[in-house]
Design a protein that fits this description.
The structure is a homotrimer of 315-residue chains. Chain A has 315 residues and is of the alpha/beta class. Chain A folds into 2 domains: 155 residues, Rossmann fold; 147 residues, Rossmann fold. Chain A is built from 13 helices and 11 strands. In chain A, the strands form 3 sheets. A 5-stranded parallel sheet of chain A has the order 9-8-7-10-11. In chain A, strands 2-1-5-6 form a 4-stranded parallel sheet, sandwiched between helices. A two-stranded parallel ribbon of chain A has the order 3-4. In chain A, helix 2 links the parallel strand 1 and strand 2. Chain A is globular, with a radius of gyration of 20 Å. Chains B and C meet through helix 2 and helix 13 of B and strand 2, strand 4 and helix 4 of C.
């Protein structure tokens, strides 16, 4: 593993999940592995779970962390090649990535989708240019189209709570007042393909995810039908992919409620957080013993720790 | 001690002051106590002394710290239960507190009073909801109505400089161009009740503090009369409590001056800082050898260290 | 060395460069020197290289760091003595510096020039008042008129790449859309005076640096003439010093290009970064193997480490 940009960078996913579970049992077992090593964490967007869980994972491995809110603490970055830099951007990614590589042994980056330029977002400019110009491993802490640390943590959580050989997993779209990226949903879909599971995606018309990612996953346009017999229900909002960045509806018909959960097989509820209560999902579902959202957040630490450990051991 | 929310969480206050003095003599004596432990520090407001002294205290105990400016680095929090979260607040305190509890062993929080809603401020929403929903100890780094770490440090400072069995201590209101919270004054009043002291509060009409806190402490409306024979003078501005959040006067009649200090028994001068020179207090008083303000700030480290140590040992 | 405010605080400069090179070879050789010590890093302006390289240097020495973006995380500072502080500034430098001295063993400060008040900028108010009121060593992380850590790193870089006993070094002004301070250029000029070198400064009319700093250094008004036979070319923009803070021209005649570099003796290219590509310098020069900009950034770590080590050993 050279970088951790997408889930595809994990070659043996099931093994990785098992190894992350072992780290969780004994988090400080490798606390000298990161001695003299430094992780730079660069944020272009807000973060609570990712910020704290990645720092915590680094602490478990004895890695020193340097955290920067890049947007306001450093210089605005230019990503285009060959431009005359006479605008607001005062540093080119070429220099920024090369320089950070001199001070850090690994660099983790969060840079959300713009949601106004599909081509640019899918080009993953920030993440990929860091990977291109850095001479150290780059870690994706949520990029325009992917959130692999979240999906990895979700896989750990599903494994911990799965009682069946082949559970039914439903990813269901849910309402939200703001246009949200597809990153979490994309990575969840990609991750589930590594599991033995019956998997369906439920969404209203107009909210189909990128078909190149969903592939032959059954798409269901009736939420209750999709929930039927589910063992895990993952709710998540995303904006329209076809009408890129648009919010097509704001009614609460697709909000996940306790009533709807009755269609499931006493399913576990999942969400990546932060979640808007009584918009995305009703209080009753979130506060139910079957809600795994806090444990998903907890497992972010061990997903990050697995990635950091692997990159250290390769280096 | 489960949390450190107010001074009442310290059961044997005099012992605590003595123990904090012992920590000051040998700050690194317990430097392995916090091994593998993490303190989250969440700021909803600016901070200099609290930020640095609490980090320093953690360092003395070998505790790892993760500092967040919550307002701009994370997600805006919702505190009400049962609301439809369709506004600007994207994460509920229930999730935020539970999630932080997974990454940290203790969490310290700074959240000032709004000064526009007395009932809400006195409900101590931010601090109390963190304490309610977190599964780890919560530490008050100044809340809407209390600043117990400051008052604890003030007690250490008074003990260090007291030459009498029963000194006279005066808390005097002083002018300020902005509406300031009552937190420091409230906690100072509560703290002094644990000391053997003659204590009076001086303030102009309209600036009486919450009577539930001042109790039977003599209130004096003439500053010079109050200062008569004082051994310690603590100056502090606060806005009106009865006309909640209002500034009733901006003249400098109540500014503490060297002239006024002549009424005292060569009193020591105290203030929590930051202080506006020549508005709250004249240069001559602040720059006088009897000023204890820097030592108060220094003692913030040992007050915080006592609290962290106690919470670690309980845990 | 009591403080590190300018290059003059290094008494034996050539020795310092050699010692920094030794630190670079074995960065963790003194990793216990900073045990129990704390460095405060206070930023009044953005920073990438300085922020990370100074933290990295501290890590090499085992020094604990506390980083603050002073402008938005703490209180606005008053620097004037005797004023009535009834405006926006709520803390005086006297208290801030004294208080920070209680929590830290050293404090590093970044505070750029205003560029609208020459007298004030040359008074180095922020840096000098910190040095005046702090009881701990103060380190300049770029002040209004000097950036000695950069110049120190530049000296290391020149020494590493110099093949001649007496190289020709050219500092050339270059265009920029914004008014930039003179700090980097000033410190570079001062530093080169410690080297055995033929040194010339090239700039258009109106862009002469402070004559008190340039002294008898030859000033050349024709860039190509200045570049003739150069071994090192350092490009840097600065605004007008005589018409203080003004931008006198924005054309690209003085941009450094590959064509112009042909006049040199296959010169090494240097710049402190961040750099605006194709405005200050053309892509071809920056991306050429002779560009030392990333190694200059790398050497910032060892410049900072030398300073921190020296201050620790004095203390």
């Amino acid at each position: 593993m050279k970088h951790f940009l997408t889930l595809d960078d994990i070659t043996h996913f099931q093994d990785a999940v098992a190894e992350a579970q072992a780290l969780k049992k004994n988090p400080f077992a490798n606390e000298n592995l990161g001695r003299h090593k430094t992780l730079g964490m660069l944020f272009f967007n807000p973060s609570l779970r990712t910020r704290l869980s990645t720092q915590k994972a680094a602490q478990h491995l004895g890695i020193h962390t340097m955290v920067m809110n890049f947007s306001n603490e450093a210089w605005a970055l230019e990503f285009e090649n060959g431009t005359k830099m006479n605008g607001l951007r005062s540093e080119h990614i070429k220099e920024a990535a090369a320089v950070v590589s001199k001070y850090c042994d690994m660099v983790a980056i969060r840079a959300f989708a713009s949601l106004n330029d599909k081509v640019k977002d899918e080009g993953e400019e920030v993440l990929n240019k860091f990977a291109e110009y850095a001479s150290i491993p780059v870690i994706n802490m949520e990029s325009a189209t992917a959130h692999p640390l979240q999906a990895f943590a979700d896989a750990i959580t599903i494994k911990e709570h799965s009682t069946k050989k082949r559970p039914k997993i439903v990813l269901t779209w849910a309402p939200h007042p703001k246009a949200l990226p597809h990153a979490v949903a994309n990575s969840f879909v990609r991750m589930v393909k590594n599991l033995e599971a019956d998997f369906v995606i439920a969404q209203p018309e107009g909210y189909q995810l990128n078909a190149a990612i969903t592939g032959n996953t059954p798409l269901v346009y009736n939420q209750e039908e999709a929930l039927e017999g589910a063992d895990f229900v993952y709710a998540k909002n995303w904006c329209s992919y076809t009408e890129y960045g648009k919010i097509l509806r704001t009614d609460d018909e697709w909000m996940l409620t306790s009533e709807k959960m009755k269609h499931t097989n006493d399913a576990m509820f999942m969400h990546c957080l932060p979640v808007r209560r009584n918009i995305v999902v009703a209080d009753g579902v979130l506060d139910h013993p079957n809600s795994l959202v806090i444990e998903q957040a907890n497992n972010r630490t061990y997903a990050a720790q697995w990635v950091l450990k692997k990159l250290l051991q390769n280096g």
